[in-house]
Specification:
2 copies of one chain form a homodimer. Chain A is α/β, with parallel strands linked by helices. The first copy, chain A, has 11 helices and 14 strands. The first copy, chain A, starts with 9 loop residues before the first strand and ends with a helix.
Chain lengths: ~300, ~300
């Protein structure tokens, strides 16, 4: 791949636990080229982050010179390259930009590491995110609204007055994965062919989480429905995982509503690109929440916006 | 070990997924001898249950003749020796006795397999238990009360008019084990020396689950406190697992209360002997529930009571 030097002005690296994603950015902010490697931070030994980064980006540096690199994600955490301190809510773009940490790479490039965000009002302890705040910025701070970021550790965040004013974490994706892969549910369920979803089973689980009345509060009990539904002939083995997925994500909505993140009739933006958004968008109306999708490249947009404000 | 034949009238086998526990019973109902082996049903290959049983009991048969054997636990399930149909609630001792299935062993002994119990009123599907109903019988059906059976899949049951009238399962122990051994909590926490408990951390988790107000309903969010509490310097690595234990068991109480199993000022019996009872008894007062312990040998007592009614 040959690139004219003039065609690129910087690189954005979203470097997480399991994946490194890099984008070469043109002067118009558009992506000129992209790479994705499985070199997540958990695969990096002896803290050899720079060689891994150079291997991923070397071709672009060779073609375009020592472009500045903006990095976000778990690479900025305690287990990453540089632990960038959290910025406290409420935080606008200039505040996040002030929280960046810079390093000089051996090829002369500037490496800017974006900060994570901390919510001092979190219950029971100050809550934290690292990467999602950049996605929220990329989705736009120009409108007051609630932003939902599905994931292993989902986030519900509030944007008001051009700043992220608060957020709350729900470990929904992780709890689902534990149940689906390590529990009694793993042992009695059968996976569908890759890419297939039993939406009827998903809806059934979600509906249980959305029911009025205190029985629906009993999350630890409803989960046993994965077994009793099968014993009673009401859930096929291939339906169980999507039933549980609907139940667990639905309970995130139930709990987020209890915590005041939304009420029936509200609207929210769903941001992320890990395949969960469709599930969240499907459940939202069940709780009277009007959900619309955010941009697919929110992390990239946010990184550019924060870097530009430095 | 030599035993006079006259000293024994039967054998009770509590045969679960991971353990086989057998008791040799005297004419007074007392235990004359006991064995425990790791031959849980999951270790039995090719359905060779009878050879495993004979290996465990052979010495007693040799000494005392072909005593009748009463078996309970997962040995009576679909994955066990004989799938004994569930008896429906409400169920008294004669109803459970009518649900027994008999087999003849090759040595001439009668093998009586106890039934499990089904609650047709379970939500969202009929609930089931297998073994706990025998413990409830052993704890006594003579008084109307609520019985709590802590475990991998905890049960809350109601005894009224000499029968078990209903029950509900909470998968508390399993969710705790998943979190403690496979999740972000497993990676950031350090176990205490075996047998030690950080009761202050346990109480802190339980108190969060017991708080008034909707924030305490957000189970999926409170779990993230295991990480944020450590990041904020408020939870030591060795405190995290007991904090989560208190939070998860506390949430079982919160959810059981929401489902009407008790109200502040009520009393309940806690039955079981798997080491969790102390934790349950410690949390109960936080919810205004007066808890008292059931007999340690409830399963054995129950098996004898049901077998005697046949």
């Amino acid at each position: 791949m040959t690139l004219p030097t003039a065609a690129a002005v910087g690189i954005v690296v979203d470097w997480g636990t399991t994946t490194l994603r890099a984008s070469l950015i043109g002067p118009d902010g558009a992506t000129r080229a992209a790479v994705e490697t499985p070199d997540g931070i958990q695969t990096v030994t002896d803290r050899a982050f720079e060689p891994v980064l150079m291997r991923a980006l070397g071709q672009w540096f060779a073609a375009c010179g020592p472009l500045p690199v903006t990095a976000l994600g778990m690479i900025t955490s305690r287990n990453g390259w540089v632990e960038v301190p959290y910025v406290d809510c409420p935080a606008d773009i200039p505040a996040l930009a002030r929280g960046m940490v810079e390093r000089r790479l051996r090829n002369g490039s500037v490496l800017r590491l974006l900060p994570g965000l901390r919510n001092p009002a979190g219950h029971p302890f100050p809550d934290v995110m690292r990467g999602e705040e950049t996605q929220i910025v990329g989705a736009g701070l120009d409108r007051d609204r609630v932003v939902v970021l599905p994931g292993t550790h989902s986030k519900w965040a509030r944007v008001a007055g051009g700043a992220i004013t608060g957020f709350q974490t729900f470990v929904t994706g992780e709890v689902y994965a534990l149940l689906a892969h390590h529990s009694f549910i793993a042992r009695t369920s059968s996976p569908l062919p890759a890419g297939e979803t039993d939406w009827a089973a998903f809806d059934r689980g979600a509906a249980l989480a959305g029911e009025a009345g205190p029985q629906a509060d009993a999350f630890l009990s409803l989960l046993f429905g994965a077994r009793t539904g099968m014993l009673d002939g009401q859930l096929a083995a291939t339906a169980i995982r999507d039933f549980v997925s609907g139940l667990v994500i639905g309970h995130e909505f139930r709990q987020a509503r209890a915590c005041g993140w939304f009420a029936a009739g509200d609207a929210a933006l769903i941001v992320g690109n890990d395949g969960l958004n469709q599930r969240y968008a499907r459940i939202a109306p069940l709780f009277g929440l009007a959900a619309s999708p955010g941009p697919d490249d929110a992390a990239l947009r946010g990184a550019l916006a924060i870097a530009a404000a430095a």
